[in-house]
Amino acid sequence: MRDTGWSSWMRTWEAHSRLSRFRRALDSSCETVAGLTRASKLFVALSGGKDGVALAGVCKEAGRADLPLVHVYTELNTPGMEDCAKHTARILGMPYSGIQPDLSPHPDIWHWLRAIHGHILHPGPFEQMCRGISVGNMLVAYTYEQGFDGSLTGMRAEESKGRRINRKVRGRVYTHQTDGRMIVQPIVDWSARDVFAFCVSRGLPICDHYRLLYEKYGVSPESPGSRVDCLITSDAVAARGALAYARALYPDLWRQIVLTRPELAIEG
Fold first, then answer.
1. Could you tell me which residues are beta bridge partners of residue 168?
2. How far is CA 3 from the centre of its chain?
3. pTM confidence score
């Protein structure tokens, strides 16, 4: 019988890592990282998802193991992201920092989330939530607070039209006109298969969410529908089933989410 399970994906990615086109993509990304001036104070955004893990590994291979890895954590992240980020840092021997949102005066994220008025997926409340716990917002604040010049991110052009346009217009390395922050996107031209191939061939961790989603729902780990992120998503993402996935894959966390925001029981 033909193996169509997770082990088949692993073999596919291992085989892909031996292709010359993958090698060329990796060499090009390493050149981007190696070409960064050491006078610039930069950090690596390490989400704990496949892209961030691969990005960290590319930095190590490019000779920049000195770059600090920065992970943003909240209880609303896909479970396993923080462990994956820490494991990556240990394997690569790179400096690691974990940051969490400042939700004061609330004692924890559940009290903070409960205090937001209105349906959490409606525009106003959803934007309020994002301002407080959005990874992007928190990393920008971290850049300012710690005096960094910018960051390296695992953004990839194939993930959305906006990212494809950004890649075409700005390239792999650019500076924000508004505040002068440097943004470096070494793997922006990679496919999802390239990313998984790199992680598998280098023995780097892959967040278990991809496997769980594939085995329970048949979602391809290489598809846009398979990603790690905040479990409470906008209506557009919820329509793809993200909340239903959370309910089935992480029942204990889901119960806490619904206890805090009962309206999500209907969405999920």
1. none
2. 29
3. 0.92
